[in-house]
Structures are given as C-alpha cells and as structure tokens.
Specification:
By secondary structure, the chain is mainly alpha-helical. Helices cover about 75% and strands about 0% of the residues.
C-alpha cells in the first residue's frame, strides 16, 4: 500500500511539472509577442492557477520540493547572469557595485523601515526588520529581464551584479535585526561587517576556484577531456559551488555568480572552446535558465496568500511605493554619484533608480521569518508579497520603455 501511495504521489508531481512546463511555454511565447519580460507574465499566470483561484497548482512554500526548485533555480539563473558579465566592463563600475550592495542595503532598509513604522504602525524594531527583508534586490528577477531587454552594458551589468552581491548583505542585516527583535542579541556593526566579509570572501573564492577548474576541464588545450560534457560540468559545478560555500557558512548565491563570471570570461584565463561546443553550451544554459524561470515565478505567483495580503493592503502599498520612489532613488544617488571613476550620467542613475525588483530572495527571507515565528512575521510576509507583485508587475514590463526614453536601449 505504501508503494502504491508513493507511485500516486510521483504521478501527481509529474503532472504538476508537465502542467507548469506547458503553461509556462505558452506564457513565454505570449511574452515574446507582447515584447515584455516573461517573469511578469509567469507571476500573473501563477496567481491564476494557484490554490486560491483555479487550484491547478498547489505546492506549499515550505515544502522540500519548493525549496529545491527555489534554491537550484535561483542558483542557475545567477550562474547564467554571471556568465553574461564582462570583466572589462566591471572594472569601470566596481566601486558603485560594492557601495550600493552594502551601504545601499542599509540606506534602503532604514528608509523602508521608517515608512513601515509610519504607515503600518509597527513597533520600530519590527518595521526595521521588514525594511531589512525588502532591502535587497533580486537576481532571479533582474538577470532574466536584462537577458531580454538589451540595456547599455555597464548599466545592466551594474544592476545585475548589485542584485547578486546584495543578497548576502540583505540576509545578514535581516538576521542581525531579528536577533534584537527577539531579544537574543544586540546589533554589532563590527560583527556584522566581519560576517559579511566572511560570507562574501569565501563565496568569491569558492566560485572562482570551481569556475577555473570547470574551465580547465572543458576548454583547456590539453586537459579539456570533458568538453563534450560541458553542460553537465557546469550543472555539477553550480550545485557544488552553492553547497560548498553554504557548508562553509558563506554565500552560496555569490559563489555560483562568481563561478558564472569565470566561465563567461574564460578567454581571459587562456581557455578557449571550439565554436560548436561553445554554442551548444550557450543553448543549454539558455534553455535551462528559461525552465528555471518558469518554475520559480509560476510557483511564486501560485503561493501568493491573498487573504493575508488583503489585511495590510493599503499600508503595504504605501510602504512599497516609498521603497520604489523614495528609498531606491536616494540609495542610487548616494552610492553612485560619488563614484568619479564610473562617471555616471543622470539618465543612467535614473534608470538604476527604477530597476530594483523584489522577488525570490526577499520572499524566501520572509518565509523563514514566518517559520521562526518572528515578531510581526505575518505582516512582513504580507508586505513582501505586495512588494513582489508591485515591483515585478510595474517595473519589469516598463524596463524597455524607460530604457528607450532615456536613450540606454541597445537595439539588436
């Protein structure tokens, strides 16, 4: 009987996967026709087929299956984003990336927290906890957008890099504030900075080492005996980079992003793949990243708790409006304007002000707080879902329009 039950569960999961792939494929084609980033439509479709509406898909947010999809999907999208970056571009803007991914998270979290304190009437520490959760941008959302919308290289790569690097800072600040909120500790700037440097440093080292080894095995003149298996090598290395860094209490997401950067810039390390093998690898990565986007954002939409969200709808919308229109612009101008090396133009900074989508990473942090029964966890989860919906459904579809208006769009 137990075996029969397992078979039925397996069939049900297989049906759900097939349904998500079928619906996702149709949605992706529609997004191409409408010429908007597909993540926005995936999210809407997910809301339509979730348990609170049509009931076609019901995978719990705290289930092992959902966590597997979120972790691996986010890792692979990050790897894809890292592989699209170029070192020669990043050399111009690395100061901005470093400052906005660290100091910028603190600025955004503080302003958003004060808005939550004012509009939602939360205790200050709970309001700051909400601000910390919403402070980081989301690479799983931004990387696909810039894959589809061709914005000036240095702007797109700055925003993508920021989103990859600030998730560690966002998590550190969140749990530092949580310790104070739960009365289990006091905030220490020195300890938090040390933790950030540890997570970031080990993440960079783990990703760099694995990236170099993978490049050696698929593109070295003599040792490329795995060139034909390049897609599988990258797949194994993405998993290895995340788990290896995470096992050392470092940022797994940073590790896979740096791994992607090394693979994408392997020519600079003296590694060259044959043209046919390189094209095959790129096609594999693009297809796999598309599938990961489908699953992540359709499931994210299906897990929107409309009942919980409605409890704090007005206050939540006001808080997210402050996040988008006040906190983000102040953060960008404060962090980017002093960077004389990058010489940012007003149009470039205005564009960066608008691109700060909230997605998988903040949603995962909010889910963890609910599971830990943190103070104000329900209102934090509610406002986080509102932020996900507002930023993805408003900012993502208008990215191309704004890029064109500001003269930053690179037509292909």
């Amino acid at each position: 009987m137990e075996a029969a039950g397992s078979v039925e569960i397996a069939k049900h999961v297989l049906l759900l996967f097939g349904l998500i792939l079928a619906i996702g494929t149709g949605t992706g084609l529609l997004a191409q026709k409408l010429k908007i980033p597909d993540v926005a439509l995936f999210l809407l479709v997910g809301m339509a087929i979730g348990p609170d509406t049509l009931g076609l898909v019901n995978i719990k947010a705290d289930s092992a299956m959902n966590q597997l999809i979120l972790i691996f999907g986010s890792c692979y999208i990050l790897f894809d984003g890292g592989a699209s970056l170029r070192f020669k571009v990043l050399k111009e803007v690395w100061i901005t990336i470093l400052v906005i991914a660290t100091v910028g998270v603190l600025i955004t979290g503080a302003i958003t927290g004060l808005a939550a304190y004012y509009f939602l009437g939360l205790p200050l520490i709970v309001a700051l906890l909400l601000g910390a959760v919403l402070a980081s941008t989301d690479p799983a959302t931004l990387v696909p957008i810039f894959k589809q919308v061709k914005i000036r290289d240095r702007v797109a790569q700055t925003v993508m890099s920021e989103s990859a690097f600030n998730d560690a800072m966002g998590a550190i600040v969140t749990f530092a504030v949580l310790a104070v909120a739960m009365g289990s500790g006091e905030f220490s700037a020195a300890d938090s900075l040390g933790e950030l440097l540890w997570q970031a440093g080990l993440g960079v080292v783990a990703g760099g080492v694995l990236g170099w080894l993978a490049a050696l095995l698929i593109a070295h003149e003599r040792w490329n005996f795995l060139a034909e298996y390049a897609p599988l090598v990258t797949l194994m290395a993405v998993i290895g980079a995340y788990l290896g860094a995470d096992g050392m209490h470092a940022s797994g997401f940073m590790a896979v992003f740096v791994f992607g950067m090394v693979i994408g810039n392997k020519d600079m390390f003296g590694f060259h793949m044959q043209e046919g093998e390189q094209e095959r690898l790129e096609e594999y990565v693009a297809t796999t990243a598309l599938i990961m986007r489908m699953f992540i954002f359709i499931l994210l939409g299906a897990q929107v708790n409309f009942g919980l969200m409605n409890q704090y709808l007005l206050g939540g919308v006001l808080v997210v409006t402050v996040l988008m229109l006040v906190a983000r612009p102040i953060t960008v101008f404060t962090c980017a304007l002093p960077d004389r090396r990058a010489k940012w133009s007003l149009k470039e900074m205005l564009f960066m002000c608008w691109t700060r989508e909230t997605g998988v990473i903040p949603a995962a942090l909010a889910g963890m707080l609910v599971g830990m029964k943190a103070p104000g966890a329900e209102v934090i989860a509610s406002v986080t879902f509102i932020a996900v919906l507002m930023t993805i459904l408003i900012q993502a579809p208008t990215t191309k329009w704004l890029g064109k208006k500001l003269g930053l769009l690179e037509e292909t």
